[in-house]
């Protein structure tokens, strides 16, 4: 199997309608080009300079319901200057067919599989950020030319590339009025613009010369300034003398200059990822914390909050783009614009990949103590690796730093570094002190001779690690038990791992995510081991046959827990959560059961932890006891039910006497029911309803039309009668409240 990191997200990018300004006519024209005209396959190319909004426009068009409903299969991929044809075709295949796997089989002919999957279908493929015509030649032969009305949309900043493919659509600049509208939305949000700032604010917007990226970056700067006419006039004057290219560079530089030091470090860290890389936010926050880039405090509880604040600050200043959100609105993936990434790369090179990082107090944003000097850190980069390889991995023999620096220098091993092909990874790491991050999910550790020979001694020198992610055949906790500062442990393995007493030595562990991980339920009454700092425990398998429920009490502060139950035969009648007060910090809970799970065995005769906000259940029978336990959760906002059946072969779900008080998101997938009865009071706060592969369901209760908060119904692989009932609900809402309130989405590419 080939393990790959993809640079695109499954569902494309969520457009932010609140900040989408201008281009309304452009969107309509491009939608017409996509949905009307010839049956032959056509290419629509959008051309414009960097920062003009090509990708934003393409996302807006791609996500429109009229486009989604028109095509049988869709995919949105970023090409970039450096690309892998095999990875691009695999991502297109995943999106077009709805596959969720992240691995390519070594002998798999991805191109041929894609061509067959698209054949005779009306498809839309978006190829974003294409830099040369050769990329198009490499890809286009695998997109069938059958006369089905298929379309390919390309965005590029190179007009010659677009002309080679089609008659290009030249994207215009924003008008002065549109520029001012966008600036207002970014600076004032929903506030009224002070009367005295209207004229000078319009002048600031006009001087941005219609370039959306420049407008939002300058909005992030001016929002930090005093709201005085004289201050804004001076800012507008500085902008007026700059040309378009200068505007872009100046906006990025000024945005960077206005950042506090810790935000500069965080931004440069992000900018070191590859071009157009789709960054998982949950990983990014852990990496920032491990590298000590975020403001800290004596209370470690605030580390995650501090890192989220940094992320939010960079997004609000438009230095980061949100590429996908979770069902609860949290950011799941983010990206950095090419211009900002180029600036970050240039900044790191300019400073010889060195940074002085100071520890900051989170409340005052000042150095925590004058006794704490700035740490001199260097990013491990290609030239450093090359010099070390030439000089036997000895720092003393290379000329990239002076002797004083060599004594105190610490190293930042960015995940990007590990994807490079260094000749001798562990010899390199042995000679670079204070490595805090080791991210090796893309490297099979058993392929290295040192690790094969002695995995424990290979990792022995890495005593300062705070973040470890590795890919091995079989993992042993003994390899890492000496890493007393370890905060995050991620292991991808092929063989099941069992618990070891060594896990209790790592008192600072905060996040554990191990595939194929099984627990041995040891009942050790003599010594109660506790990991107070552990917050997330993901993807672990548990056997309930010999379960000791006290085991889970050893992680009293868990916030996220994901379990896969693999064996329950002979289980005694007890519960994982006997009272709602147990694990009262737990907010996210995922549990999946084997097919055939019987509720008579226990578990759901109890309750869930009282503060759960996200609940995902798979493979259970939805009994009255289960529904009662779920409805009792007063803070539950997201509920996902998968592979659900009902007791006594009665596929009917009646919640007319239940109230899920604050539930906002409900997803039903492969739920084996044909009747669903509900009142508008059952889900009074529901915003999104997603139903997938519920082929027996006859209709959605008509009472959903009376839920005032409902904004979206999405149906995937459902019966015609369900679609008809959803359309009836939408029509009723339109007749009483207008067209904008409720969206109905029935995608065809599943």
Number of helices: 24
End-to-end distance: 25 Å
Form type: globular
Alpha-beta content class: alpha/beta
What is the averaged pLDDT score? Answer: 83
Largest sheet: 14 strands, parallel
What is the helix content? 25-40%
Strand content: 15-25%
User: Any low-confidence stretches, pLDDT <50, length ≥5?
Assistant: 1-18, 362-371
Number of strands: 29
**Rg computed from alpha carbons, rounded to a whole number of angstroms:** 28 Å
Pfam families: NB-ARC, WHD_DRP
Domain Disease resistance protein winged helix: 273-343
Membrane topology: Peripheral membrane protein
Keywords: ATP-binding, Coiled coil, Leucine-rich repeat, Membrane, Nucleotide-binding, Plant defense, Repeat
Folded structure, characterized:
It is a single chain. This protein is of the alpha/beta class. The longest helix has 18 residues, at 720-737. Mean pLDDT is 83; it is low at 1-18 and 362-371. It holds the Pfam family WHD_DRP.
């Amino acid at each position: 199997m080939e393990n790959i990191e993809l640079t695109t997200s499954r569902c494309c990018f969520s457009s932010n309608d609140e900040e989408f300004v201008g281009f309304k006519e452009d969107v309509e024209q491009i939608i017409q080009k996509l949905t009307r005209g010839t049956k032959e396959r056509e290419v629509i190319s959008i051309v414009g300079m960097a920062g003009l909004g090509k990708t934003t426009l393409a996302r807006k068009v791609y996500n429109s319901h009229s486009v989604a409903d028109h095509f049988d299969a869709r995919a949105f991929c970023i090409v970039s200057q450096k690309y892998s044809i095999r990875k691009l075709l695999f991502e297109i295949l995943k999106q077009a067919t709805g596959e969720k796997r992240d691995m390519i089989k070594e002998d798999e002919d991805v191109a041929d599989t894609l061509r067959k999957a698209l054949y005779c279908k009306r498809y839309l493929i978006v190829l974003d950020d294409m830099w040369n015509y050769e990329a198009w030649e490499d890809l286009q032969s695998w997109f069938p030319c059958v006369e089905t009305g298929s379309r390919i949309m390309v965005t590029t900043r190179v007009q010659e590339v677009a002309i080679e493919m089609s008659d290009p659509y030249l994207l215009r600049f924003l008008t002065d009025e549109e520029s001012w509208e966008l600036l207002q939305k970014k600076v004032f949000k929903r506030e009224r613009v002070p009367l005295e700032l209207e004229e000078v604010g319009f002048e600031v917007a006009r001087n941005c010369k219609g370039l959306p990226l420049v407008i939002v970056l300058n909005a992030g700067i001016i929002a930090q300034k005093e709201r005085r006419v004289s201050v804004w006039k001076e800012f507008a004057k500085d902008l007026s003398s700059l040309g378009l290219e200068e505007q872009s560079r100046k906006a990025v530089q000024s945005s960077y200059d206005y950042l506090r030091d810790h935000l500069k470090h965080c931004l440069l860290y992000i900018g070191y990822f590859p071009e157009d890389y789709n960054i998982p936010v949950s990983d990014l926050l852990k990496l920032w914390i491990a590298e000590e880039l975020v403001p800290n405090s004596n209370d470690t509880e605030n580390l995650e909050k501090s890192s989220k604040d940094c992320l939010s600050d960079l997004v609000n200043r438009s230095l980061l783009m949100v590429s996908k959100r979770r069902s609860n609105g949290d950011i799941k993936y983010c990206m950095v614009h090419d211009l900002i990434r180029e600036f970050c790369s240039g900044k790191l090179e300019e400073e010889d990949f060195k940074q002085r990082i100071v520890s900051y107090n989170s409340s005052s944003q000042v150095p925590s103590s004058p006794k704490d000097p700035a740490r001199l850190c260097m990013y491990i980069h290609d030239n450093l690796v090359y010099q070390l390889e030439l000089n036997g991995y000895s720092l003393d023999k290379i000329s990239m730093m002076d002797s004083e620096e060599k004594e105190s220098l610490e190293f930042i091993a960015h995940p990007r570094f590990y994807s490079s092909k260094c000749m001798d990874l562990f010899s390199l790491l042995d000679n670079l002190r204070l490595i805090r991050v080791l991210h090796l999910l893309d490297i099979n550790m058993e392929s290295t001779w040192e690790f094969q020979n002695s995995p424990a001694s290979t990792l022995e020198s890495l005593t300062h690690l705070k973040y470890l992610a590795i890919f091995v055949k079989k993992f042993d906790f003994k390899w890492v038990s000496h890493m007393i500062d370890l905060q995050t442990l991620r292991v991808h393995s092929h063989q099941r791992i069992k618990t070891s007493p060594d896990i209790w030595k790592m008192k600072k562990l905060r996040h554990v995510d191990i595939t194929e991980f099984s627990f041995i339920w040891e009942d050790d009454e003599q010594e109660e081991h506790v990991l107070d700092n552990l917050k997330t425990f993901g993807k672990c398998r548990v056997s309930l046959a010999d379960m000791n429920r006290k085991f889970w009490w050893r992680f009293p502060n868990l916030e996220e827990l994901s379990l896969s139950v693999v064996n329950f035969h002979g289980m005694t009648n007890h519960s994982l959560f006997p009272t709602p007060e147990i694990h009262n910090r737990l907010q996210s809970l995922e549990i999946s059961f084997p097919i055939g799970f019987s509720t008579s065995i226990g578990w759901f005769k109890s309750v869930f932890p009282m503060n759960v906000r996200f609940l995902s259940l798979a493979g259970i029978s939805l009994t009255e006891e289960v529904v009662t336990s779920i409805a009792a959760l007063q803070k539950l906002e997201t509920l996902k039910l998968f592979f659900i059946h009902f007791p006594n072969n009665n596929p009917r779900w009646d919640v007319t006497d239940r109230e899920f008080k604050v539930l906002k998101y409900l997803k039903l997938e492969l739920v084996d029911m044909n009747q669903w009865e509900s009142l508008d009071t059952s889900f009074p706060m529901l915003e999104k309803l997603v139903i997938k592969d519920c082929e027996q369901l006859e209709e959605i209760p008509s009472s959903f039309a009376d839920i005032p908060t409902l904004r979206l119904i999405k149906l995937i692989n459902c019966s015609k009668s369900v679609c008809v009932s959803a359309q009836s609900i939408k029509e009723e809402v339109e007749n009483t409240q207008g067209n904008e309130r409720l969206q109905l989405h029935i995608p065809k590419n599943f």
